## 1
Amino acid sequence: MSEPIVSVLITSYNRAKYIEFAIESVLKQTFQDFEIVISDNCSTDNTMEILKKYTDNPKIRIYQTKENIGQFPNRNYAASLAKGKYLKYVDSDDYIYPTGLEVLVNMMESFPEAGWGLCSLGQVKEKPYPILLSPHEAYKHNFFGPGLFHKAPLSSIIKKLVFEEVRGFKPGKMVGDYEMWLRLGQTYPVLLMPDGIVWYREHEGQEFVFVKDYLSIYQKIKIFYLTHPACPLNKKEIEMVFKNENATYKTGLIKSLITFNKPKMLENYHYLKLNKNPIHTNYPVH
């Protein structure tokens, strides 16, 4: 049998309530040249019991880690088992619309120079999607435009060879996808694709509810890549990013002083301190 075009990667941890919904959304795709690789991260609920009903499906391969290795190492593990040309994450609590894979694959195949792609993006006035951006254009789109690198793995599609070249996600909670996009964006053209391809579920059990606890780490990663020798932006553009950010934080600091909002006061002060004379340092450990 020939290898599938797409490997749909579903990583799970205690997602018994949602995982069947996610799997069924993939199985109902109009584009059927795919495999599903499921890697359960040592769930303690009945997730594995639900997965047993899919063991006879030739499109699905199910694995379980021996211990909880964390979100992004589990994403890397699932990717290492993939056989497809493209990697498509569909998290165990999310959903992909029936034409999702068809749209993503057709657009990526139309732009073979793209190393990766991001969807779930709002309309831009210049032209319709898909839009191919060079590394320099992608960084400008993120730091001077509507933003780009904030998207979750659900919105991504990545060539497996590219994923292997950059050695996948770095470990750590919350920030692994943001760091990955900044890293990919340094080197590989990215294809922008529209909204309406995937659906992101919001619920109390997901890590994103703790995002405020990681804002400082996000900022350190941003500084790391903006001051990295391989940053696609030129010196003036990098200086402008920090100038714009500092203006925002100064305004926020003044407002927090007026309202005596101590947490916001400390937050804005901390970011201003981080942005003062930023220099390239080792990757921030988290």
## 2
Amino acid sequence: MDTRHPPFDSRDLRNAFGCFATGVTVVTARGNDDRLVGVTANSFSSVSLDPPIVSWNLGRKSPSLQGFEEAGRFIVNILASDQEALSNHFAGKSPEKFTGIEFDEGLARLPILRGCTAVIECRTIQSLVVGDHVLFLGEVEQYRYQGREPLMFCQGAYLPGSTSGQR
């Protein structure tokens, strides 16, 4: 019995996935060459509390992938509602994403973005190629949060409460 589905229109499927509202993060790391990498990601999820494990994923064609694979750790910076510009900045294609960005250093000198609602510092415990992405699993080493309103994204737009407040 053939249980395969006909091919999906990838843009239309992406629109369906986009109906799920998510928070917005910037995941950061420091590669072997000391180069800082950072990407906007809404694929972040908690996986386990005991031990504390989180996940996120990155496209296999991302120019930042090598840096994250080399780093062996990452930081999930959960953006606050007034950090839409930071989200857009790290979603861009510039190889020098940290130019002009203020940050502090966490474990292993990884960049912690300022003003985030929460910061979760992780050691990579596994990375898996899954389709056109790499899934990263990280054990939480330390975290902190401020309880600020998070930046939210749904159907291709930031939800009201962001700095622009436009949908």
## 3
Amino acid sequence: MESIARGLDVVRCFGADRPRMSLSDVASATGLARPTARRILITLEELGYVRSQDGGFTLTARVLELGMAYVHAQGLWALARPHMEDLVARTHESSSIAQLDGSDIVYVARVAVPKIITFAVSIGTRFPALQTSLGKVLLAGLDPAELADVLAQPSRSGITPRWQPDDDERDAALRQVRARGWAMADEDLAPGIRSIAVPLRDGAGTVVAALNTTGHAAETSREVLVDQHLPRLLEAASAVGADIALHDEVPHLRAAT
């Protein structure tokens, strides 16, 4: 088990800012001894997850299989994709689905339009939850004990968000999300990013993820998000939720026949 944990630590130490790392870089980033880091890198290379070149190491595309296995197991992408594509066609804005992982959100589905924003987003990208519309929706769905536990965990996104609320401001923001049933992030994460999100619920009404529409703040006003995009977003979320409920019922229906 310790070897698995160390191997995952090595994979996670690579990133957009560190796509290529030397053995010393990996050992330093993971806190592993150089011989241990070397053995793990060699094993990962044999398995096809790492490539060595010019005295350094890079991840290969096969690493995507690890994350996509989770996405496919959840079934969210297959269920949500047609509804998200329709939403994007109607709003001309990007749309994403995310779930909580500690105090971060992780993107598990996305349909994008070509616009330049502060951060590039793809499946597997993580951001601090509190400063995103997706994260606000998900945090607002937690009970007080769960919320405190989640927010106590440090972000692993490596990003310092623009909005840094105190406890009272944070709690007021989440109360507003609960009352409205949707959340907005107006350049809370970084300049230029404005988004609106709603919850995705399963057949029991439990919030299982969040769905958003994201635009550039210079092009998409708050009024456009609320007056034009929110009704379409709610419609899409309802359709995805209905498909999730039907999907969840299939095993039970089969078992009964």
